[in-house]
Give the backbone structure.
Amino acid sequence: EACKDESAEVRWGASVALGKLKAKEAETVLVALCKDTDSEVRWATAWALGQIGGEGAVEVLLLATKDPSQEVARQAKDSLRLITERWWEEHESDPEAHHDLGVLLGQRKLYDEALKELDRALELDPKYAKGYVARGVTWGFKEEIEKALSDLKKAVELDPNQYDGWYYLGVAMKKKGDADGAIAAFLKAYDLSKEH
């Protein structure tokens, strides 16, 4: 109820208290407070969401980085940084987390950074077929076709039902000039697409 109080000071205090308690169940209340008319309440809410975390918190904090108040925007960025650091502490040994980050970096054309994350994913799990596909695609974007082929062949060797592996193997073979190999890989990808 304090979060709905008429007094901005009370709403500010409620936000801070919820953040100190790290009350995950309060996330929805705090999300609503991010739209408060008082910038100090929005600042406290951004701080509290950083303490609590959660997917809803991340979405709201991303929006709050564009807040008209520089202090709120700065706090939103600090809270996102805190949530990210905690998430990485929990997922440092998770190959899928490194894969997903590598794919995201690759989509932003940060290929060298993407390769580092994909290398880490494959160090953690050398039999992670999706990791080889993503790294092969990234090598392809860098025009390193031999490296792309090597990773994509490894991917389909580890998981012969890997549609993406066969498709991108076809792309890499086409780039290399191996029309027969490309056709065979594309046909395998097509057959797998009909199964799913």
